[in-house]
Amino acid sequence: MHSSASALGHNDHAYWHASRRRLAPLSGEAHMADLLRVMGADGDAGTTWDDPLNVAVWCLRDGAVLFHEGGPTESLFVVRSGSLKSVKLSEDGYNQVVSFAGPGQVLGFESLHRGVHRNSAVAMEVSSVFALPVKGLDRRRQQSAALDMALQMAISRQLDGAGDMAELMAAVAADVRLSRFLLWMSRRLASVGQSPLRFHLRMCRRDVASLLGVAHETVSRSFSNLASEGLIKVLNREIDILDMPRLIERARCTRGLSESAQASIPTRSLAMATDGTAHSASA
Amino acid sequence: MHSSASALGHNDHAYWHASRRRLAPLSGEAHMADLLRVMGADGDAGTTWDDPLNVAVWCLRDGAVLFHEGGPTESLFVVRSGSLKSVKLSEDGYNQVVSFAGPGQVLGFESLHRGVHRNSAVAMEVSSVFALPVKGLDRRRQQSAALDMALQMAISRQLDGAGDMAELMAAVAADVRLSRFLLWMSRRLASVGQSPLRFHLRMCRRDVASLLGVAHETVSRSFSNLASEGLIKVLNREIDILDMPRLIERARCTRGLSESAQASIPTRSLAMATDGTAHSASA
DNA sequence: CGTAGGGTTGACAGCTTTCAAGAAGTGTGG
DNA sequence: CCACACTTCTTGAAAGCTGTCAACCCTACG
């Protein structure tokens, strides 16, 4: 599992002096194969291994900022180890946590079309990321079909994950939101080989609260509630899921069912061959 | 603007009889150039016009289902005209609106990595979409660099839009959420050439409420509030933005600023050259 | 004309936010 | 090693807002 670190380990004295060589390709390199493995493309096909290209790896200490909101999008990043958070400072100074990213997740893609980052990425622990310069990314994708495919899949997962977030916030009750968050966290950790029942939250309550869209006191209270019901055990940021089935049950409560039956969806697709005259109707 | 419809207009009698030829390549075809134009790739470069490929166009009547949650992901779709909504039925039957999609937006990409749709797409008016079969999509992208680039950008925008959603729901007060929604709508309509100050909502209050994560009565009340303050004028689904600056001001209210100063972000990137031993710390 | 769905508004219970204070953990420096 | 400062986390109490239930109006449609 740690074999991917083999390409690193030199220039250990870079520390945060690296901040001086502003965003230089620092910290080390890794083989493309490592990148693909982290991105979960191992099972696909060991097709084009004619790619000897190395990938830059950046190492981040806890709290380090990978990129700043408003800064130019010079690279795409794939989380290699650790975890990052994406935060967006509102115009009034409040900063909103948009997402948490773990190994295999892509950072910065959403800013590609504008060339400017729409949020900052901050490491929540000692982390490392693969850096893929946007300049030359197309060429690289053309050269390596495996990378291209892996990126597509990663982006698809990313978009899928964004849907999860919407689901998270769709819940009304704070307890339900927190339950869903814990389950989401559990699934995510399980997918990278960690225990889904016992884990350490890397983020503070305030960040969780921000992501869930509630006050951080409410998060604290919800933790206490779930704990007092025997669903979980909480010791600061150490979480034990004691009763997974009931936690799932707890996460399932949504708004009243009264609205469900009405906005029903037909069970079969319908199409018609009208000309694209929808514009006229909207004027 | 309507020139893109030139390739259509035949087989006008397909109507929803098309539902019988289950998901057949129906309704018509258009030139790849049309697709690229809708995707906003016109300004880029008229590079590889050696692509004579046509793209299937599906026409949908109001309420038609483009694809069902749980169904196989056979095609990617790009909205050509009209508007769609993505909905996800919760396990308990309540269906949650995840997003609204307009011209140029991609549908189905989030399901690509699993091969199964994670939500349904429903037309909110007479609409049309380009259909790109996933089978052979890679080949097509390789053939047309313009399509490849356009897709990348569209997906980037999509992901960017997902961030907007998070921002939408981050607001505490219902009035603020609705204000942000209206501004989001306004911007989106402006980007496709429609009036940003006067528009017709294609979705019912319940769908807005679902997207915003509030009760539909609350949406109704918030509309009334904003109207009584003179910020907007509401006539059923007809919206007039009367005072854009103050509406923006209204949308800017977030949670108390007290939390803002604390979780400050360093103003410069920090990096360190630790080996990827973050795994050990997480055990 | 009657029904069904969409939209608005009122009343009240319930939950969340806010303000406030205290407890517990972390890190620094003596 | 302890003291101190600082942040994080927890808990309490009151005010406010939202969810829910309910009634009513309106339009579309058969």
Gap between N and C termini of chain A, in Å? 59 Å
Low-confidence stretches of chain A: 1-25, 257-264, 266-283
Mean pLDDT of chain A, nearest integer?
79
The helix content of chain A is: 25-40%
Strands of chain A, count: 12
Per DSSP, the total helix count of chain A is 8
Oligomer: homodimer
Shape of chain A, please? globular
Q: Gyration radius of chain A, to the nearest Å?
A: 22 Å
Could you explain the architecture of this structure?
- 2 copies of one chain form a homodimer.
- Helices cover 33% and strands 20% of the residues of chain A.
- The N and C termini of chain A lie far apart (59 Å).
- A 5-stranded antiparallel beta sheet of chain A has the order 1-2-9-4-7. Chain A has a 4-stranded antiparallel beta sheet with strand order 3-8-5-6. Chain A has a 3-stranded antiparallel beta sheet with strand order 10-12-11.
- Chain A has 8 helices and 12 strands.
- By secondary structure, chain A is α+β, with helices and mostly antiparallel strands.
- In chain A, strand 5 and strand 6 form a beta hairpin.
- The longest helix of chain A has 26 residues.
- The N terminus and C terminus of chain A are likely disordered.
- At the A-B interface, strand 2, strand 3, strand 5, strand 6 and helix 3 of A face strand 2, strand 3, strand 5, strand 6 and helix 3 of B.
- Chain A binds a DNA duplex (30 and 30 nucleotides) through helix 6.
